[in-house]
Amino acid sequence: MVKWLTIVLLAVSSSSFATQVELTRGVEFSVLNQQDVEGKGSVSLVNGDNQLVIRLDRSFGDGDNRKEILTPPFLVTIPAQANTQLLEIGLVSTKERKLHKLIKANQSVFTISLDGQEIEHSLVELPGKNGFMPYGDLVGLTKKYNQENGLMYEAGTLRDLKQELKTVSEGSSDISTGNESEATLQLKIWFSRASEKEKKQHLEWVMSQLIN
């Protein structure tokens, strides 16, 4: 019974801890692990993978020479350890020309540090919605992106279920090999995409099957 329940119950059990946030001027940090953190001076990182949404909105120069850089929001995943005190998100340069060059080359303009140690990272542009204010709901867009791409949090790890399923499917025909079976991964992908009503109905069905 416990084994089957773990297939459908996807609650995150990782510990979290308060971390101070310092942002360079123009850097926006809006979402952490699918939660709104815009404007907060401290956040709760989990011990493991942390998914951030960041962007740059900054003006350079004065008067007629004034130029602005406004990037789309980006997703970035960083690892954190217990008792991290400080999260710093800065820029690789304060020169507008250099930042534009990096953006054109699809390279990150950000620096991300935990307790003074810079973290290597890669960015994924967060798709916006069509029409007015395409990035008006960054939390909703993040959840949608994760659901559509088979990403989910489990025990402090951001798992790519689609990639795991592909690996299992291309491997041995024995679906019990690896960390999880193909059937288990399919169930998790479905469950992560289901509505709250659908999840409740499915759990009720699972319980009825276990009782019978």
UniProtKB/TrEMBL annotation:
Q: Does the keyword Endoplasmic reticulum apply?
A: no
Q: Does the keyword Signal apply?
A: yes
Pfam assignment, any one: DUF2057
Entry-linked InterPro entries = UPF0319
The alphabetical list of record keywords is: Signal
Signal peptide location in the record? 1-18
Protein family membership: Belongs to the UPF0319 family.
Question: What protein name applies here?
Answer: DUF2057 domain-containing protein
Q: Which organism is it from?
A: Vibrio ponticus
